[in-house]
Amino acid sequence: MKKGSPYKSLADLPAGSIVGTSSVRRSAQINRNFPNLVFKSVRGNIQTRVQKLDAEDSEYACIILAAAGLIRCDMKDRITKYLNEDEMYHAVGQGAIGVEIRKDNEKMRLLCSVIGDRKTTWKCLAERSLLRTLEGGCSVPVGVWTTVSSYNVLKLKAIVLSVDGSESVEDFVEKQLTCEKDAFDAGIELADKLIAKGAKKILDEINFSKIKEVKEMGLSNPQ
Q: Crossing angle for the helix pair 118-134 and 180-197, nearest 10 degrees?
């Protein structure tokens, strides 16, 4: 929240309050839950965004940032509310650290196997196979929430939203894991369930809007 604000959560904010975020996924989810709020883009690194929030002439009532980034920047005191899974699904692979090596480098593969976290790998494989099957990209409103129990049971939840949050489909799968392929298959299974509920239609409309926007800008080869 803006420094000195009496509010502590999105639910506390008066109707019409402006919330800053540069993420389509975040704004779509929040707009779905808080249609009375207004969302505007805010750019820059963490310090710059916080400065924009606190400026005397700032239009923002609050901004949405990853808690990990604020903590790393020694700004944990600025966190007024952590968003749980009911309020905010995270991005595919968010928070995971990947190491890229040459395919034929067995020495590096062995080293990575020692430091790698199996459950994180399973989560990422499930989430990435979900997104790949949906044919979504990093800029579309697809959110996930993944856990792996102590008994190696994966629970993968996901949501696909329209940009304004007015349309959405969500579902989940649970699967006992014994290998990486099980995690990969779980992502495909959930994607198929979401597609059956209308996820493909939502994503196709988003992609069509992007292509139309690019054409209107006079560009013939959208990336």
A: 30
